[in-house]
Amino acid sequence: MIEKLLIVEDEFIVANDLTNMMENAGYNVCGTADSVESAKAAIDKYQPTWVLLDIFLQDDSMGTELAPYLQEKGIGFIYISANTNQSILEAAKATQPYGFLVKPFREKDLLIMLDIARSKHETSLQFTAQRELLLQQQVRALTDEQTTLESKLNKIPATFQSLIPFDYLAFSYTPANSNKPESGAFFRVGFNEYQVLPALEAKQLIQVFYYQGSQTQIRKSVDASILNGGAFHSFQAGRIPGGGLLAPYRLNSSLQLLNKTSEGTLQLAFFNRNENGFDHSHKTLLCKNEKFVFRLFNTLSLAYNGDSKTLRRASRNQPVKSVPKFEGIYGNSAALLHVLDNVEMVADTPVTVLILGESGTGKEKIAHNIHLLSSRQDAPFITVNCAAIPADLIESELFGHEKGAFTGAIEKRIGKFEAANGGTIFLDEIGELPLESQVKLLRVLQERQFEHIGSSKTIKVDVRIVAATNRNLEKEVGEGRFRLDLFYRLNVYPINLPPLRERKEDIPVLARYFLSKSAEEMGRLEAPELSPAALKQLSVYNWPGNIRELNHLMERTLIKTRGKIVESIEMPAVTRTDSIPATSTGDNRKTLEQIEAEHILSVLKSCNGKVTGVGGAAEILGLPPSTLTSRMKKLGIKKELYHDR
Ligand SMILES: Nc1ncnc2c1ncn2[C@@H]1O[C@H](COP(=O)(O)OP(=O)(O)OP(=O)(O)O)[C@@H](O)[C@H]1O
């Protein structure tokens, strides 16, 4: 089928060039528009499959304003703009386009992007269908289940979590023959754990976050609205100065639903700690499944007594438990739980996952869990560290070689892709892959086939790909070090792992876990407890080496602690140095890169410039030597800065 494409661009010549380019490539350009209003009219008239969208349009309108309209209609869009202003780029990215091209670009780049956008769109449609089905099945099971009302009620938050990720959910249901709403609220405290909050709290919140407008003004029987980031804060500030009840939950976005039928009125308010917690796909999903959602609350004939449950908090002497369902993952911060929601969602699909995050944040752990939660769990999980293999050996490592294919190939060897057949291949530090190897990898991603070096026989494999990097790949693409087409092939389902300093709530759990793990390894009967002062030390530190650094610090702390309590911790010294190239913010504050550089430098000095091996800086920082050297290079840390001659 020839796909219909609409071009929204206010410069006539550019629109004309784009039209010719796309028509030559076999697309049906159904129209062009130069403003948001004319674009809406064209969308209604032509119902295009794709929209190429400029950001600055006629009449001072912005292409980004069109995004919600397109999302509601399920039309994919790609921004094409000459603007590289960071805040505009960020705002555009937040609208979740299928791609972004900066003018001028090559025709080839646009075609590749559309090709990839198509496969992303298909993936997202599959996800939506999967999520809807899951919701419908869960609602059916809940309404049919012969169990207590309380048990059903407790299952409500988990039922919604897979559809619309939230940290806080409030509901209110008023049967038509009553004017007494039945309300409740749930606050997420663990992966599948929720605290049930008092009905009064839910009632008050619903009153505030009720669909914006009084009940009498609402004509539609189903409606939903989103408040993200700034809009959420100003709405909240106007109605509950200081955040009121919500303040302790540190929420930053909301999605409200109102569903009015002859049987009753249902109001739901979902809240998220993310600034951009909700998008139009969530709203559409909720509205589309409104009957199921309504039925859930209606048939439960709620008799919720509004009691709050006391939170189960891990007491000091309780063994620290990993997050249920996930192997070796500790922590319960909202940021980690959001990551795990994504992992659960994508795990049992064939979709390529790109894990982004600083070194030591747990990327490999997450990749392994994706494998373990997939139907490939019994097949191999093969890790390839793209930074650790010399550039001239990468292809032989990945694809294998025949005997005599090159000097040193004394026997035939299969590569990592073949070894991972049926399972998952984890391409760690993908940002370090040399450009020449990137094109070869692209072919495997597209066709799942390759040849051994020294052979022309094509080998086909069935491998799920998970890649990870601590580099900003978009920047690498911009600077010509990473292929755009490979980036888009890998970036189908990105998962961002936040650094430890942005999820400090995880530190106590992780620290206790590492202490008890090390105690067990060292044959000690009991791990010491962390004093409040020690916990405070851990929480104010910046953790440039993330979880890996915390692990190593806890190992060292255990060795030094004889008693039952760790009173204080010998934290890594962060010394000042003026020799580090400044990437200053322009005021007195240091950038994270400066802090990281200073920290690395101080460790290097403390081990007399030894980078690798026992007692070397890489070991102390808990980083693979290759990662440390690449960080040093990036941060401009030269030998003369840390080595005494
Ligand atoms: N949530 C977690 N709970 C417990 N341990 C964790 C968690 N995340 C990571 N770790 C541990 O922290 C260490 C670093 O994790 P991992 O190797 O997965 O990080 P990474 O981001 O892949 O690092 P790099 O970029 O340097 O390869 C490992 O020992 C891992 O087991």
Automatic annotation (TrEMBL):
Q: Which CDD domains match?
A: AAA
A biological process term (GO) from this entry: phosphorelay signal transduction system
Recorded GO molecular functions are: ATP binding; sequence-specific DNA binding
* InterPro entries (UniProt xref): AAA+_ATPase, AAA_lid_NorR, CheY-like_superfamily, Homeodomain-like_sf, HTH_Fis, P-loop_NTPase, Sig_transdc_resp-reg_receiver, Sigma_54_int
Q: Which Pfam families match?
A: AAA_lid_14, HTH_8, Response_reg, Sigma54_activat
Q: Which PROSITE patterns match?
A: RESPONSE_REGULATORY, SIGMA54_INTERACT_1, SIGMA54_INTERACT_2, SIGMA54_INTERACT_3, SIGMA54_INTERACT_4
All copies of domain Response regulatory, residue ranges: 4-118
Which SMART domains does the annotation name?
AAA (SM00382), REC (SM00448)
- Domain Sigma-54 factor interaction: where? 329-559
- Look up and give the organism this protein is from: Mucilaginibacter rubeus
Q: Which UniProt keywords apply?
A: ATP-binding, DNA-binding, Nucleotide-binding, Phosphoprotein, Transcription, Transcription regulation
Q: Indicate what this protein is called per its UniProt record.
A: Response regulator
Question: PTM 4-aspartylphosphate: at which residues?
Answer: D54
Lineage, top-rank taxon, reads Bacteria
